[in-house]
Amino acid sequence: MSAMPLSGKPTGASSAVLVLYAAYLAIPIGLIILGSFGNSWSNTLLPVGVTDRWYLQLWTNGTFVKAFWTSLWVCVATVVAAALLGLPLAYAIANARSGPLSLIGRVLYLSPVAAPAVVLGFGYLLAFSSETLPFLGAGWLTVAAHVVICLPYLLQTLIADLRLQGMAELEQAAESLGAPFHRRFLDIVVPGMTHSLASGSILVAALSIGEFQLTNLIAGFLHRTYPIVLLQAFYGATGFACAATVVLLLLAVLSAIAGAAVGRGAATGRMAPA
User: Fold this and answer.
1) Which of 57, 101, 236, 253 has the fewest Cβ atoms nearer than 10 Å?
2) What DSSP assignment string belongs to the chain?
């Protein structure tokens, strides 16, 4: 008895699961958006009244404006530092001659993902609050912490792309023609990694913008990021907190759209005939 071919169409059960999952994601976000335009919201399922005053208050709130710009410069600095570190590290790990050496490299750069952010935060507290290293609360320390958390995701993207493109074979061909290492790296590796570096950097930006646990432990009062002051807003007016959350959500959506556009551009560029 031959097996029945798969039609590829979703079944009723799978469609129901998909709808439930979509509703699970959309309902909380929808309530936050509604709450940002609600005049008041207390002990009811939906807010009462319509107003835009929460966004006006957010725009004129010095604490949130400063936190917003702090998050932006921390995000930009994190992306630049991760890119400068990530490309040579990914190249070294992908081209490691020794299997154990490559495994050790993977364990090292994936360890921040395995370790809870709060554990890393307590480690930073112990290390940088001493008299020898009194750097707790410095802006550059926040950037360094974000790089530690975000770099593994960029490395995963770069290493996968290096192997997918067969970069080692391309380098061997260039080496056989007499190209030195720095020419091979700058003329072959870097241009070939442009799309994966861009898409990975956008992922780093999205993670940095929303990072809270570690930042809340090590950021000083002068360098509080947007998610930190956002949590404090929920102890006050709900509508104001919802409006502040919508701004953070908008940044995440823009990052996702940019990442999808870059990924699509990379796929189109590789499929185009030479």
Assistant:
1) 236
2) -PPPPP--PPPHHHHHHHHHHHHHHHHHHHHHHHHHHEEE-SSSSS-EEE--HHHHHHHH-HHHHHHHHHHHHHHHHHHHHHHHHHHHHHHHHHT-SSHHHHHHHHHHHHHHHHS-HHHHHHHHHHHHBSSSSB-TB-HHHHHHHHHHHHHHHHHHHHHHHHHHTTHHHHHHHHHHTT--HHHHIIIIIHHHTHHHHHHHHHHHHHHHHH--HHHHHHB-GGG--HHHHHHHHTTS-HHHHHHHHHHHHHHHHHHHHHHHHHHHHHHHHHHS--
Instruction: State both tokens at 100.
Output: 């154990």
Q: How many domains does the chain have?
A: 1
CATH code, domain carrying 81: 1.10.3720.10
Give CA–CA dist 127/243, Å, rounded. Answer: 37
Domain housing 185: 72-224
Distance (Å, whole) CA 79 – CA 154: 10
Once rounded to an integer, what is the mean pLDDT over residues 192-199? 85
Residue 234 has pLDDT above 80, yes or no: no
- Is residue 207 one of the residues assigned to a domain? yes
Across the chain, what does the average pLDDT equal?
A: 82
Tell which residue, 208, 200, 197, has the closest CA to residue 252: 208
pLDDT at 23 over 70: yes
Average the pLDDT over each of 1-5, 51-55, 179-183 and give the range with the smallest value: 1-5
Confirm whether 4 is domain-assigned: no
| Euclidean distance between CA atoms 234 and 258, whole angstroms | 29
**Residue written as tokens 């994966």?**
196
Considering the domain boundaries, does residue 50 fall inside one? Answer: no
Report d(CA 55, CA 65) in Å as an integer.
12
- Structural tokens at position 130: 């001493």
